[in-house]
Amino acid sequence: MTVDRASSITRKDFLALLGGGVLAAAPWPAGRVAAQGSGVLKISFRSSLVRLDPAFTVSSDEYVATQTIFDNLTRLDANLRPIPGLAEEWSSPDGGKSWLFKLRSGVRFHHGRALEAEDVVFSMQRVLNPANASPGRRALGPIVEVTAPDASTVKFTLEGPFAEFPAILTGTFGRIVARDAVDSLNQKPIGTGPFRFVEWVRGQHLKLERNAEYWMPGLPKLNEVWLVSYPAQAAEQSALATGETQMMWDIPLSLVPVVSRLSNVQVTEIPSTGFQPIAMRSDRPPFNDARIRRAVKQAINREQVMRFVLQGRGVVAQDTPVAPSSAFYANVSAPPYDVAAARKLMSEAGHSGGFPLRLFASNERAGCIETAQVVKPMLEAIGIKIEIQQVPWDRFNAEVWKKETFFVSNWVGRPTIDEQLYPYFHSTGSWNEYNYADPEVDRLLDQARRELDLSARRGLYGKVQEKLAYDGPAIIPYFSNYATARVRGLQGVPVSPLKWVDLREAQLTG
Fold it and tell me: pTM for the full model?
């Protein structure tokens, strides 16, 4: 989902819309004092955490964990627009090519030291340094240099104008770490966030406690937060039903009717921009042949996949990650479902007899195995003999993602159009799980980053979507709804279409 909402806007107003003018934090009410925390919140996840260092996180549950421990310069409001975080205001003096962020005073890390601009510079440079191999190196935007003009100001110099930059900094790789506590980030992470690290029992839980000195007065309201792993779906449901946990982060959509019947549990379901692409490695056989990619696209009935996997709780997609809710949605169409046409393409590519292929999917992300199961007979109808390989999520990330040839991946939405396309399909993109390299797509994405005219940007991104839909390396059959469950006494946790979890205002009542 993009933050660009207006259909007609000037360059000046466009920058202001995305935080390009000076944006000041709303003052806290006079006399507001720190509230006493109360309650213990336990949130269940199907998978287990692997990393707590925000520079190296690659999984949604890890994003949730680091969001509770660390802060960013900016954060998103309910409309997915950037608002002040650790930066109380920002400005771009030259039309989006450079950005100045003014840090708020009174912010302290969990180990007691005050936040300084050098911590921000260190955090950003750590992600950007190629030697560190952070997956976020290209996800932070086209940054040339990060400097600290003074102790409370950070300056970003970019390759060219980039209006979405303040929104980009809200993501997982924009978390700010203490430069003097970096060696322990995966064992005892220290941030400025609403909750402090207590313990991490791998494969079981992460325990956090309230940061009583948090910079937002009166917050957080909970004493403790636990992120608990339940690899078995039945055990996760039982924990919520019995009150062992108070929130289920992500409900498989096929189980929404079942979970909705649990007493004292409220289920919330909203449209999201989350998608589960079937990834085809375009740098190796058979998918280095665009005819094979198109054949696979034409063999898949997207409507049937959506109805089988999501029980109709979503919308059909057309092989691009830009949802219909986006102002940049181009209304393109993937090659239509046509088994005869798909067989013809297979023959033209020299594979009239078909070939065997392993399709990997995780059993710890709702929808992935189901997608593999429903497309298997569709692909076998054109001669591709599918062997489904089921793996846990941690093994998927370590052994399958970006390594195997054919797999079902899993992605939550992204707040800007740049993040929806550049990291996945630019040849240098951080999330390019396809090893896709198309010079024309690279050129269009690079040009779109620098273009401030909204109409021109739409045109550039539209061309990218046309290319991806026709012969790109992903089959994206649907955008899924997002469903989450919580006990009725849990208040103050907004439901985000990005599946992000903000626990600052969370409280347990009754």
Answer: 0.86
